[in-house]
Write a structure and sequence with these properties.
Length: 74
């Protein structure tokens, strides 16, 4: 992963070499479970979530979603 752009203190645009595309990495609360969102079928009107993970160094919980051309994930 390579950070392409910092959106704010807790969100970044990254380029993932395995997927060969950009994603938004956003810090989420530890108790937030996005597995149902990750398991959704893809749809043009819904941002696709690919992963939820904890950073080993900071212990922070993050979501990895497709990069979109505007708006927000809500």
């Amino acid at each position: 992963m390579q950070v392409k752009h910092v959106l704010c203190d807790s969100a970044f645009v990254i380029y993932h070499e395995d997927f060969r595309q950009e994603f938004v990495i956003r810090q989420i609360p530890d108790e937030e479970d996005i597995m149902k969102w990750i398991d959704l079928q893809t749809h043009t009107n819904i941002t696709t979530a690919f992963d939820s993970f904890k950073d080993e160094m900071s212990g922070a919980h993050f979501s990895m979603v497709e990069s979109n051309s505007g708006g927000n994930i809500f």
